[in-house]
Amino acid sequence: MRRLVPVAAIALALALAASSPAAAFSGFGTLAATATYDGQMRFTVQLPGGPPEQLELLLRFAGSESTTVAPVDPGSSSAEYVWDTADRHVTPNTTIAYRWRATNGEQVTLSPEKTLLYDDDRPGLDWHTATIGAATVHWYGGAESQARHFGSISADAAAAAEALLGHELAGPIDIFVYDSRDDFFGALGPGAREWTGAATYPDLRTIFMWLGGGSSSFLETTMTHEVTHVVFQDATANPFHEPAKWFNEGLAVWSEQHSAASQVGNVRSAAADGRLLAFGGITESFPIGDQAARLAYSEGATMVDLIVDTYGQDAIAAIAAAWRDGAGDDEALEAGTGVPVDELYDAYFASFGAAAPTAIEPAPILPSNVDKPPQPSAPAQVDESASAAPSPSPTQEPAQTDGNGAWIQGAIIAGILVGVLVAVVANRRRGSRAA
Fold first, then answer.
1. For residue 277, which of 36, 180, 229, 348 sits 20 to 30 Å off, Cα-Cα?
2. Which pTM value belongs to this model?
3. Which fold has domain 31-118?
């Protein structure tokens, strides 16, 4: 008995420990985040009091007003979430705001918000930086002189765009200069078109330049082009929709030389061949093909040139202001020019001796020429004009049944009879036993 007492005490202690409640969530501990370009972003948080009933990571990417909610299965004292950037591309120089959200019953707890900069830290890219005006230029290898030159051009381009659009640059610009084509397209990701030599992400206030994208003079005008996009983004920002793409790109091309003279020949050639694009067709996006895409740029630039020549540069600022106030494309163009948009389009196409393009009717679907396997014969057609007896209503029994139906009915009746017979026999046996 004495030996059993300590054993019972230990068993009781173990039982009490097993039945005691687990550690409860008491708040967030240390938050941390790391990133490796084209690898992963890793977010971690300490849970000193234990995990909550439900845990989520909230991610908000720069340039987006939406929040990504990622459910996370926590451990006993910490949690981790990994974003595979090799599979889900994120543009470099993106700032991600993140925080954790815990839910216990009806109680919701938010962690402090922190940020992670997802930058291009691939091996071999020993980035150097310099601030020139409103731009911070980044380069690696021996591209310092070109990068600094781009910085100077960007300052002049920003000032010119501000004057044209009647709006100041809202913040600094980052310019990344790539020496290698592979490095450049590695930054843009899988969606980049093969003819791209520079790219701007206005929401990130970031410009990517490739030194092999063209001659020195081409790169200089391209820098002016790209900076104009950023100023245009600031001048037209609204929560409703993006301005017409043809106007955005056309203004950037026009700003390269404050003229569209170099684009006129391309539009004339398209007019002669009947290849002109309707502006309604290049409002959201441009064609994928190189020739059609260049025509879209040319049409946009020559339309901007027509507006400036006919209605003055103040019309450009008025159009931008209307977009900034939430106007639609047609409303914004009329606000700047004072004429209905259809009249504006007609005047444009008439200046090239062409009529406004019309919608192309879809071609009819031709009969199939695929050999079909033998088909079962069609049932006999009923003469709709002849009188016919009404179909039985759902409550009526059909007059006749097929062979299978008769067999099933017989089986059901036989089953019922067998059941009755078994019940009678069993009842007699119980009666005889009771006697």
1. 229
2. 0.73
3. Immunoglobulin-like (2.60.40)
